[in-house]
Amino acid sequence: MAFVTLSKEQFEEILPPEKSEVINDISREYIYEIPTSVKNLMVRIYSTVDKSTNQTRDRGEDAIRIVFWDAKNDRPIGKGKKILRIETSTTIKERIQKRIDIFLKDAPSQVMIDWDYVKAILTSRHIKSNFALDMYAQLETRGCLSDKQLAYILGETNPKGYQTFEAKVKQADPFFYHSYMNEFSDEENEIEEERIAIQEESSEVVAETPNLPEVFSVPSDIHLIPTYEYDDWSYPFDHFNPVQSAVMPHRKKDCNMVIGANTSAGKTICAELIMDYVLKVLKKRVVYLSPLKALTQEKYSDWQKRFPDEDIAILTGDYILSKEMQEKLNNARIIALTSEMLDSY
């Protein structure tokens, strides 16, 4: 399963002739739009072609994204689809063109109001309003809102002349669109596919130093700590699992820690237990580093709710390290970034 590198010219040759390039000073990659048969409805394509090199970014960093775009209101409709830059039984060219054809065919059936986007605005940490929470509850119950209600959510100004909730969110977070579109992966098993592909490209590593002694292993009869004893956060289960219970006594120690455990063993919660202490007691910052953009985006989204009082920033290959972005990173208490961006910050 080989990764594919494309130049700007090669990528543009894949797209239909009616494409146009989107001028976006914030984005680090080239973005293209294709008109559909519906007025003001475009198909937007995030190419992963880096503006600084005119080539797609390093393998495994991210995927090509295709999404419907409301041109009149300049916002996405849905989270779109992703295409991994790998060769499988079909070529990357065939998969991109097939995906575009499907989007163009589906355009007439699209609803211009993306209710998931509306929910993302109403639940944004930048909106602290009972009115917003009430509308979110109605949207969850009924599946839609009235035009009068939407007038307070979408657009620039509401009927009373003040900023809409969308305008407030966009002002507080210029990268809100990116965060929303990447919050969940619409392509099934994308993260797992990336892991498998990377593993297949890897070679065996032989240690040059003697095996280090085992420091600590989780005993099978370890006492499971009840979650009600943990004051910093209320978890929706009764007890921490064996790995988390083993980590708990060490969370306040000034030491390096490596946790070796299976997938789904609860390592993220182990990190959160330590983060609570670092952020609230030590008053220090936290950096989350991941080799995969999808994982970085997932944690960024999750921690908006897990750490609602903290400023959280994200830095992946999608973002240009502008002065505004630099300031946001400098002020953030939690930074989620991909490994290739570590040297950039």
Automatic annotation (TrEMBL):
Coiled coil location: none
Gene Ontology molecular function, alphabetical: ATP binding; helicase activity; hydrolase activity; nucleic acid binding
Pfam families in UniProt: DEAD
Domain Helicase ATP-binding: 248-345
The name this protein goes by in its record: DEAD/DEAH box helicase
Protein keywords: ATP-binding, Helicase, Hydrolase, Nucleotide-binding
Lineage top rank: taxon: Bacteria
Keyword Nucleotide-binding annotated: yes
